[in-house]
Amino acid sequence: RGTVRFDNVQFAYDPKRPILKGVSFEVPAGKTVAIVGPSGAGKSTLSRLLFRFYDIQSGSISIDGQDIRDVTQESLRSAIGMVPQDTVLFNDSIAYNIRYGRVSATDEEMRNAAELAQIGPFINTLPEGYQAMVGERGLKLSGGEKQRVAIARTILKAPPILILDEATSALDSATEHEIQSALDLVSRDRTTLVIAHRLSTIIGADEIIVLKDGVIAERGTHTKLLKIK
Ligand code: ADP
Ligand code: ADP
After folding, report:
1. CA–CA separation, 209 vs 215, rounded Å?
2. pTM for this structure?
């Protein structure tokens, strides 16, 4: 379960400037579709629309054949997990931040998720800005570490549908390599929509969609799209 369909979706934040001019694609249950395209093309907008942060002007978006307009916000949020580019942590321990993915998780499940995301040693630390009553200072986490917290949270949540907004800026290449394996782990067998920047994701995706000027400019597997002419 977890097939996502965009059918002739048209969307504009401002009616004078259409962002999506009729976009159709499907992410079959368990598959990975990578969205690429220039900055401002509307890639992140697709994920906001799937969460129904905004309503589309025409077309439809469905999950397993059901229009998302007929799904409650609660079930949308439990069906979809997101690893955003910039994770904003709650002002509490890393353990708390991970457990937010599924508050009913046991300590052991929480620790396992933290291990898988390679953030295990941090679970009892507090993020920067947090000031415990004893006056202890929080730890400044790097962009990559915050992303690992988001990955651990998502591992714990285990949603059928996953949105990965891959950051290019937040990670150095060693961290990127580490994170890639954690991301592969979360997205395996899960319906995954990736806003892709990493070549490894693009190569591994079942389909690559090139979004440009509000339409799908090209689509296909990487062997088709990256073929040297
Ligand atoms: P991408 O992820 O491909 O870089 P986005 O989906 O973030 O692109 O944005 C697509 C376009 O929509 C951009 O031109 C951006 O400036 C505009 N945009 C994004 N969010 C808003 C918003 N909340 N209100 C108005 N315009 C927006
Ligand atoms: P959870 O995944 O724990 O259910 P939420 O339901 O609060 O978290 O939000 C889902 C995801 O959407 C979060 O990862 C959050 O970063 C992201 N998000 C929240 N608001 C916005 C927004 N306005 N635009 C884009 N992404 C958002």
Report:
1. 10
2. 0.83
